[in-house]
Specification:
The chain is of the alpha+beta class and 619 residues long. It has 16 helices and 30 strands. The protein has four domains: 185 residues, Immunoglobulin-like (Sandwich); 105 residues, Neutral Protease, domain 2; 150 residues, Neutral Protease, domain 2, CATH 1.10.390; 97 residues, PDZ domain (Pdz3 Domain), CATH 2.30.42.
Length: 619
């Protein structure tokens, strides 16, 4: 998953083992949904489980799905769940928890039915990311992350499913789920098949007016479906940029066993309708759900959504699709046992999403280094000495959950560090890309690794120094010395002045932060504009130009500050040492001193230059 909070994910559901309590002579679970009959913004779901051979059974809607690393409790959107026998009589149903219902006299069970509300316009307070959410918009759009609609019978996740969906004729489906009704005479009904529940859960479906492009690159059939509620964006306008990105990615992954198809389901939201500050994408086996603002320009969608978020999600076909632990392979949707290896699932994935661009010539070497520099700065906002494996294993606990965002920062930097160390040890011949390819060949989609053993496996496949790195910086709590690491490849620090405003510098690094009281204060970063105004480190900001400031509206004022110009009067009210202080001055165009990471100009024969070329250019 890649989450953007103005900030920002990945799912590979790959199977589980259970003892079946359903008669295998007729072992297909039949599920039906009618998108033509919406009542109170809800969809009715009916489930026929085939014959059950026990007195009671539990039906469950997922509490969590892999890749989100947070409890979702989709069951809270289910209502009026009823069970019926073969004569149409109701059976006794007991709700065990927000996501589980026990059905008594289950040997008589013919079907269950219930209504599902969507998450997009819900007034409930919930923790479901929008890209993992659901939308029910009659005759316009159905954004179906299926864990929000379809559950499973406890102990029977390995049963096959048939999912029948009736829908308006003007809406077209996009999904990686197998559509058995490929010879349909009209566009009103689809019958999808899944060999087990994990496939149901891992294959979202979007129904929307036709706004799709399809193309094939290096053997991968790609489909992009876009829902733009105000018809601002057309999928055709995104085709060239997406095709360029996928071609570069598949070239980068040459030799890997990946996917034959990839579906991208894009929901562009109207900020006037949904004031979402968090959006992004959620990865699935061979597709991704993407939620971005419709008000973004084509250039913003290209740079932020396609080259940023979608490129990250695409690389999840390497991990955790091909390389994953038993915890992912046999994921428990209701009582999860989390893996230690977010550094791999999200960190390596994010690293690849940056590395392939410089490797394939889409960006310059300096642009890549600038991106890594930004990740170093961002990672320092988190606990830099927290054990990454411990954080990952306990990510559902509040203490560790608040550091989750670091998987896209330090996680990627761990990938970079490993890459440089591997290249150094192998004299440039072997890097992280080679490591992930070898791990894919050793394990693969249907062979998970043991969570406690994979680091030792990697050390055995590579060098003892990698084990030392893991002990210190991955399982241990020693901060990585990026300066020393980058010096190996001729990347050094250089001080220089750049433009700076009152809240941001020209590199978009901020001069403010928030404390536990959710007060906004100025950090010890200095710039000439703040100095002229009289701001000091630790000052708590209370108002700007007479308007009170809080975490909810600060982004608005940051944006406004970028429009301030010569002749404007600037007034801040701050609290300093417990006292109110009013600060006033004319607008000043500020500067701040930073340390940039720059590439040393070295002769081709220099060992650092050779190592850098092997790192950034070699396949």
């Amino acid at each position: 998953m890649k989450k953007i909070l103005f900030f920002a994910i990945t799912i590979a559901f790959l199977g589980s083992c259970a003892t079946s309590n359903i008669n295998k002579k007729d072992n297909t679970i039949q599920v039906s949904m009618d998108l033509n009959n919406i009542f109170d913004d809800k969809i009715k779901v009916e489930v026929n489980p085939s014959k059950i051979n026990q007195r009671s059974i539990v039906y469950q809607i997922p509490a969590i799905v892999p890749g989100t690393y947070a409890m979702s409790d989709y069951g809270q959107f289910v209502s009026d769940l009823k069970a019926f026998d073969y004569d149409g009589n109701e059976l006794t149903v007991s709700k065990l928890d927000p996501n589980s219902w026990q059905i008594n006299e289950a040997q008589k069970l013919d079907k269950i039915s219930y209504w599902v509300d969507d998450t997009f316009d819900s007034e409930k307070k919930h923790g479901i990311y929008v890209m993992a959410g659901t939308n029910i918009e009659a005759d316009k759009n159905f954004f179906l992350n299926l864990p929000g609609f379809v559950g499973y019978f406890k102990g029977n996740k390995e049963m096959p499913y048939n999912l029948t969906i009736n829908h308006p004729e003007n809406l077209y489906e996009t999904s990686s789920l197998i559509n058995k009704n490929i010879t349909k005479e009209n566009n009103t009904k689809d019958v999808f098949y899944a060999s087990r529940y994990d496939e149901i859960s891992d294959n979202p479906i979007m129904y929307a007016p036709l706004n799709t492009v399809n193309f094939t690159v290096n053997g991968v059939a790609v489909s992009l479906a876009v829902y733009s509620p105000n018809n601002i964006h057309n999928a055709k306008d995104m085709e060239a940029d997406l095709k360029k990105m996928v071609e570069a990615q598949t070239n980068f992954l040459e030799g890997f066993s990946t996917t034959n198809e990839y579906n991208i389901l894009v929901y562009l939201f109207d900020p006037k309708v949904y004031n979402w500050q968090s959006f992004g994408a959620l990865e699935h086996l061979s597709s991704t759900t993407v939620v971005f603002p419709e008000t973004y320009s084509k250039e913003q969608l290209t740079n932020g959504m396609i080259n940023g978020t979608v490129s990250h999600e695409f690389f999840h076909i390497v991990t955790p699709l091909s390389v994953h632990s038993e915890e992912i392979h046999s994921f428990d949707f209701n009582t999860p046992n989390m893996s230690q290896h977010l550094w791999m699932y999200e960190g390596i994935t994010e690293y690849f999403a940056n590395l392939f661009q410089v490797n394939q010539g889409l960006i310059s070497e300096q642009e890549f280094i600038d991106e890594m520099k930004g990740k170093i700065a961002s990672s320092m906002r988190y606990n830099d000495t927290m054990s990454f494996t411990k954080m990952s294993k306990n990510i559902l606990e509040d203490k560790y959950a608040k550091n989750y965002g670091n998987v896209y920062q330090k996680g990627a930097l761990i990938g970079m560090s490993l890459d440089i160390l591997l290249r150094e040890e192998s004299e440039g011949k072997y890097g992280v890309r080679d490591l992930m390819k070898d791990l894919s060949n050793k394990f693969g989609q249907n062979k998970p690794f043991k969570d406690d053993e994979i680091l030792d496996e990697i050390v055995a496949m590579t060098y003892p120094s990698i084990g030392t790195f893991f002990d210190k910086h991955l399982t241990g709590n020693v901060a990585i010395d990026y300066d020393a690491l980058l010096a190996k490849v001729g990347i050094v620090k250089k001080k220089e002045n750049i433009d700076a405003g009152y809240f941001l510098d020209s590199n978009r690094q901020i001069f403010i932060s928030a404390n536990q009281k959710q007060e906004i204060f100025f950090t010890n970063r200095k710039n000439t504009a703040l100095a002229a105004l009289g701001v000091k480190s630790g000052d708590v900001l209370k108002s700007v130009n007479g308007t009170d400031i809080n975490l909810q509206n600060i982004r608005t004022f940051i944006g406004q500050s970028l429009q301030w110009k010569e002749g404007d009067k600037i007034t801040f009210e701050v609290i300093r040492n417990g006292e109110n202080v009013k600060l006033e001055s004319d607008f000043v165009k500020g500067t701040t001193e930073i340390e940039n990471l720059v590439i040393e100009e070295l002769p081709e024969s220099n060992p650092k230059k050779k190592l850098r070329d092997a790192w950034l250019k070699a396949l």
